[in-house]
Write a structure and sequence with these properties.
The protein contains eleven helices and 18 strands. With about 450 residues, the chain is an alpha/beta fold. The strands form three sheets. Strands 1, 2, 3, 4, 5, 15, 16, 17 and 18 form a nine-stranded mixed β-sheet that branches.
Length: about 450
């Protein structure tokens, strides 16, 4: 693009609850002007024609697992950030359960260095809480991270925190540093008890349909209730990750408690295990149709504030087996926006609400500086989407390193046409700029 400004013409921008015909001028990495009357200043523009399209802020996915470092046979920062760009996602927050875990300052800095070298879109990383690292919270640069990730349920290695004294300390220190606590809430004792009963009755190869029996609604509710109590006591901001049950919605009545739903929990219910098997095994589990319906209503009416993906690639070999064998997690990042737009077609959510849940609210809840909105002076992170003739998602469409998706075979009627990240046109109707480079996200907690 050299020294030219970029102009996005003829599109309908979706921002702050409104849909309006407008043109956007980008100067370098920022939105220079939003023009509603068609009176474009003269200039040498690199032009993107958005006729028939909706122009959205780039999606901020506040919950991904890119598996880098240490688990890169499944995914890595380069491959998954490329998948993000294909899907209109321009910023992501990666989780700490890698190898090594992101539970030391050195490990956190190493991730930033890796992303600076290969991430195609904007990046940041949660700092993981453990039973013995709360003293390191004082060393964190709060302008570089979205918050603290806390596993209050079965996890990997030493990232399960269930000691009452330590939980109190984590919430108190997070409040002191004005860092949100994103909590994975499942009660380990309940899960272990349920798993023991299923194993005794059905053996080690119990059917995948028992996963929501093992990782039950009770396990989720009990742990989320405990997290809300800790937040109330400390004054910390609690963000409950991947809320999965109708019962947990009753806990969301505190000013300092927000919640996320994942795309998977909004798309699938337990009837889908018979068709998709381990491909939709995740933690917390996909649950009943009633739970799914309750979550859909809660994202529509504002009780749930963000939609993330919990994008967690595994190889297909690792996804084989029953409820006690297949690993948990699925790739969803690349198709999150088009799948949510499909739910809009079904009448669950307006496109304005989708932008609120996937762009505006993640920016506001985690204090992202100058991203998440289409506003003059903000970074030019933009996704341009269009209704289209229906097509079926195939394996050939998938950019994630794992090479599969639970939405393969789904018919969709939306397409991401263009993605701009920091003003650079990194995805253009199927053509991707492999030289594209994202930026470190900054936070204004």
């Amino acid at each position: 693009m050299n020294s030219r400004k970029t102009i996005i013409r003829n599109g309908t921008i979706v921002n702050e609850g409104r849909k309006e015909r407008a043109d956007i001028i980008i100067d370098n990495d920022r939105i220079d002007a939003i023009i509603y009357d068609g009176n474009i200043p003269r200039g040498d523009y690199y032009e993107i024609d958005a006729a028939g399209c909706f122009v959205l802020p780039g999606v901020i996915d506040s919950h991904v697992h890119f598996r880098d470092p240490g688990l890169t046979h499944k995914a890595d920062i380069e491959s998954e950030s490329r998948a993000a760009a294909y899907g209109g996602v321009t910023s992501y927050f990666d989780m700490p359960n890698t190898k090594p875990q992101t539970t030391t300052i050195d490990a956190l800095n190493d991730k930033f260095q890796r992303a600076a070298e290969v991430s195609h879109v904007n990046y940041s990383f949660f700092y993981g809480a453990t039973n013995d690292n709360v003293d390191t919270f004082d060393k964190l640069d709060v302008t570089r991270i979205p918050g603290i990730k806390l596993f209050m349920g079965s996890s990997t290695g030493n990232m399960l925190v269930d000691n009452a004294e330590m939980l109190n300390s984590i919430f108190a220190k997070a409040a002191q540093r004005s860092l949100p606590v994103m909590a994975h809430c499942e009660d380990t004792d309940i899960i272990d008890r349920n798993a023991k009963e299923i194993r005794e009755k059905y053996g080690d190869n119990a059917d995948i349909s028992f996963h929501p029996v093992i990782r039950s609604a009770e396990a989720c509710y009990d742990s989320s209730q405990k997290a809300v109590e800790l937040a109330s006591k400390s004054g910390a901001h609690l963000h409950i990750a991947h809320l999965s049950t109708a019962d947990e919605l009753t806990l969301l009545d505190k000013d300092n408690v927000t919640a996320e739903a994942t795309v998977a929990h909004l798309l699938f219910d337990e009837a889908d295990y018979s068709k998709l098997g381990g491909r939709i095994k995740c933690n917390p589990s996909i649950k009943s149709a009633a739970d799914r319906e309750a979550l859909l209503h809660a994202v529509a009416d504002g009780r749930i504030q963000t939609i993330g993906t919990d994008h967690a690639p595994h190889t297909l070999e690792e996804k084989q087996g029953g409820a006690l064998q297949a690993v948990s997690g699925m790739p969803m990042l690349q198709f999150s926006l088009v799948m949510m737009l499909g739910l809009s077609d079904e009448g669950y959510l307006s496109i304005e609400k989708i932008v609120e849940l996937m762009c505006h609210n993640p920016a506001q809840i985690f204090g992202v500086c100058e991203r998440g909105f289409l506003l003059e002076g903000y970074k030019a992170d933009i996704a341009i989407v269009s209704p289209c003739d229906e097509y079926v998602i195939t394996k050939d469409d998938i950019q994630s390193k794992c090479g599969w998706s639970p939405v393969e075979g789904h018919t969709v009627r939306w397409a991401v046409k263009h993605t701009l990240c920091n003003g650079m046109h990194i995805y253009n109707n199927g053509v991707f700029d492999l030289q594209s480079q994202g930026e470190e996200i900054r936070f204004c907690h």
